[in-house]
Amino acid sequence: MAIAFTPVDIEARKKLEFTSGDTLRVWSKIEDKGKFRLQAFEGLCLARKHGTDPQATFTVRKISNSVGVERIFPLYSPMIDKIEVTKHAKTRRSKLYYIRDKAAKEIRRKMKTIVSGKTKTLDIPETVTETEGSEE
User: Fold this and answer.
1) Is residue 90 included in any domain, yes or no?
2) CA–CA separation, 83 vs 70, rounded Å?
C-alpha cells in the first residue's frame, strides 16, 4: 500500500514565527486502521534547531498525567498538518532544556507572555505535585 503524502508548503513553514518559550499546538497525521486522522500535541517549545534549513527541527514538551512528554518534530515533515502558536513568550535563552528539571511554578514565575503589548505571566497548569514522604 502506497502512502500518499500531501505536499508541504515550504514557504509558509519558513515564515512561521515561533521561538523557544512559545506554546504550540502541532497537528500531526496518525495512521489508524488504514486511514489518517489528526492528533494535536500542545506544549511548550523548548528548542528550535537549524533555522529554516531542510533538516530544521523543533522540540515540544508537555506534561501528561504528571509525566513530562517531549516530541521532536521536523519542520518540513509532510506528516505535520499545521502548526498553531497559541501563546508567545519572551525568553532570555534560545534552548530551554533546564525546564525539564524545574517545577511548573518556577517556570511560570520566570517566563513572560506577550499579550497585546502588555506583559503577563505565562499560565502553565500546576500538574507537578510533590511525593509524600515520611516526614514524621
Assistant:
1) yes
2) 16
